[in-house]
Amino acid sequence: MTESNSIPNGNPALFAGDDPILSTDDDLLNRSRLASAIAEEVQIMNVTRGAVVAITGKWGTGKTSLLNLTANILREQDAVQVVEFNPWYFSGTDHLIQFFFDEMARQLSSERNAKKKLKDAAASISAKFNKYSASLSPLKFIPMAGVVFEAAQKAAEGVSQAFSSSIHEQRIEISEALEGLNGRIVVLIDDIDRLTRQEVRDLFRLVRLNGSFPNVVYLLCFDRGVVESALGEEGLNGAAYLEKIVKTSVEVPPATDEALASLLRTGIVEVLYSASATLPNEGRLPDVFWQVVRPLFVTVRDVKRFISSLALTVRSASDEVDPVDLVALEAIRVMRPKAHDLIAQSVNPLTAVHGWQAGARNQAAISADAEAVSAILRELPHDVGGAFVRFIFPAAQLHTENIWYGSDSTQAWRRDRRVAHATVLRYYLHRELPSGTAPASQVSSLIYSIQDENEFESALASVPDGQLEDVLDRFLAHVDAVDMDRIAPVAASLLGTLPRFSEDPVGIFDFGRDYTALRPVLRLMKRVIAEDVDAVARVIYEATPSLYARLRFISLVGKETESGERIISAELEEELRGHLRDSIKSAPVGVLRSERQLLRTVVQSVECDAESGQLAFDAAVAPPVTARLLETALSPSRSNTLGSVVVRSEDRLAWDALVSIFGGEAQLAVAVDGLKDYISNQETSVRLHRAIAAFDLYIGGWRPREF
């Protein structure tokens, strides 16, 4: 496994966020050649009256990176002294000019930066700049304090010397000193286009006033449109004003489509690799990359911002979300944040699957969903919107292309961890699994163990009961991967999970959890060839210990399907039902007392008659078995009033079924009295306590109101 912060065979500059590059090693767009040309021009151009050179370009095109590459080349030249000036530290024309010459003096006199060839001359020029600055600013005060700097005494001495000659005379002295300089001073000023309008005007006044000093080259970096707009106020023509100051300029060439796509693709792959994410689905990646992701990006800065954000998202969500979807959604989040906000508000419109009949009934809701999808598409480039729906949220094609999807598609989307499924999308948005939802690793572990009986049993056993329904529901999409010789053991293992499901419904519309285990069993059985199906069914039945699971299996494969066909033969069904009936009648109390849905199992397998006065099976009167029959006869009836969230619950018993097992109400009452005596000094489960309370109501003549 790769360390989380390692980048395999990649350029670290791509992962530097919005930071410009500092060296040719980080040059992603081969701008070094252009930097060399600029540096050469700065060294050979006529600077007898100074010069102003501009590197221009839109934000994000790499102006600062090009400036850095150029500055590195210039610093290596013996006859060039590079001075960096950051206008962000100062405001106001006077303040700017004063500290500009201070900074010039400080950097020219620095032992660390001084060039041997220029050292003596630079020191002399530095002193003159200090004197000139002092003339411009007699006293320098700390803002808000009104006290002089610690070097006040030295400053005062400089001031007295400065006033001994006029500012005009000092400029002549500086010009003469610079004329004798055996080289040139290059002043770098970056990020001009990020200053306020007033600060831009102040800076260019500074350059205009001092841009004629000989052997001084100003190398400026800015967005021409922004600067021209700032200079164009107060009745000035910004473009004309700029032309009078800047004599030489170079526009940063935009990255080619091929270069930008290559950087974007390289960055995505390296992020996925460094985060040890699951490899993307190659079947979807090309379409998503070229039709959804790539059109969103214009500059290298865009790409670097996105790659920097993508790394964190992949590390936090790739276990549960297909990396292809992460790439697409993060590209939209970074480049089209309004569209991303609307996605977060439109989970149902983007993921809901409607049947034809349901669609006709819910036309108003579908129309509202269509408007929500349209709002998202309006925030995306026109050529991206259709692809975004088609490749990321296909269910939403109902609203764009009148294409309908069914439940099989939702199973596949959940299997593949695609945000096209609402659960996956919500995880991406909230980074939290809903209650009862298993992590993808749990499902993957089950899938990987299919071919080994012991491993499959172990993987099922490791799934918490509260997540079992979700795991088996998602397993349904993988049953076709089960080899034919593994169908019987896998089906038996699935049936073995039935006793683990809770018998308490979750809500009003919960109709039982058994089908999450039974549906994959049914699909497995349908794959068995006709001449082998009875033999396979018999193996599964015999390998299933639970009486209830056996009943559900027989009902699943023995009854006629919607197509009018049955899976197993009628003869085998009759044989298995007879065996189940005998097993119930002969089962020991210890088995029956813990059997899931015992009441249903007995009623559907053994002959029961409420008028016979005879027990359906002898063990029914054993207190533990009577208790289990009562518990499994209990069901809460839930209801609520229209417009209210309050749910009312009323316990009911499958009274007629209970009475039929005991052969009449009298025999049932005797059995329950025996149970009460049996548990009189024992703690009982809440469910049994409720069941006995309901029995007392029923035996007294109460019956629930019929609807």
Structural account:
The chain is mainly alpha-helical. The protein has 35 helices and 7 strands. Helix 4 crosses helix 5 and helix 33 crosses helix 34.
SSE inventory with pairings:
Layout: H1 32-44, E1 51-56, H2 63-75, E2 80-84, H3 93-108, H4 119-136, H5 152-162, H6 167-179, E3 184-189, H7 197-210, E4 216-222, H8 224-231, H9 238-245, E5 248-251, H10 257-274, H11 285-293, H12 300-317, H13 323-335, H14 337-344, H15 347-351, H16 356-361, H17 363-378, H18 382-391, H19 397-400, H20 407-415, H21 422-430, H22 440-448, H23 453-462, H24 465-475, H25 487-495, H26 515-527, H27 533-542, H28 547-558, H29 570-586, H30 589-592, H31 598-605, H32 623-633, E6 634-639, E7 648-653, H33 655-662, H34 665-678, H35 686-699
Parallel strand pairs: 1-4, 1-5, 2-3, 3-4
Antiparallel strand pairs: 6-7
Instruction: Supply the helix-strand structural class.
Output: mainly alpha
Q: Helicity range of the residues?
A: 55-70%
Q: How far is the first residue's CA from the last residue's CA?
A: 62 Å
Average of per-residue pLDDT values: 83
Which strand-content bin applies to the residues? 5-15%
Largest sheet geometry: 5 strands, parallel
Shape: elongated
Low-confidence stretches: 1-9, 138-163, 507-511
Main sheet strand line-up: 2-3-4-1-5
How many whole angstroms does the radius of gyration measure? 40 Å
Count of distinct strands:
7
Please report the number of helical segments.
35
